[in-house]
Write a structure and sequence with these properties.
single chain, mainly beta
Length: about 150
């Protein structure tokens, strides 16, 4: 029927048909590779396994990414904590810019053995408004919009 989804638990291409009682209104994939399925009345569901791997956990892709910003929206009385994914052998620059592109803060990040980088930025002097975090190394970059509130 029209309210079915196909499911493969091992990535082999052997698909199982699963009937749904609800119409699917939205599909998406979160930044960790989990499939998100939205329905009109029953809510949003997340897949049990990441689409980045079938079976054993797959390594993170060798690309720059700003994985997490806490707290968000950012509060000026708290430091901004940022977690980034980096190819293991790179040094990257994390910068905070305003909407006009002026660099207000920056930090140099080096990847740890797992390809992660962490930063803490002091945003206590910033006025409320939108800003951009930009992670850059060589020709690769990742940009994430944040909002600062008082």
């Amino acid at each position: 029927g029209g309210k079915d989804v196909l499911f493969s638990s091992d990535g082999s291409g052997d698909w199982e048909r699963i009937p749904l009682d609800e119409d699917i209104t939205a599909l998406g994939v979160d930044r960790n590779g989990y499939l998100l399925v939205g329905t009109a009345h029953a809510g949003i569901f997340r897949s049990a396994a990441s689409t980045l791997s079938a079976g054993d956990a797959a390594p993170l892709p060798a690309a720059l990414a700003i994985d997490d910003v806490y707290p968000h929206p950012a509060r000026t009385r708290l430091p901004l904590r940022i977690s980034c994914r980096l190819p293991v052998a790179v040094t990257a620059e994390l910068s905070l810019t305003d909407v006009a592109g002026r660099r207000l803060a920056f930090e140099t990040l080096r990847a740890d053995d797992a390809g992660r980088g962490n930063a803490v930025l002091d945003i206590s002097s910033l006025p409320s408004g939108p800003y951009f975090l930009r992670l850059r190394s060589g020709t690769q970059q990742s940009v994430r919009r944040i909002v600062v509130t008082r």
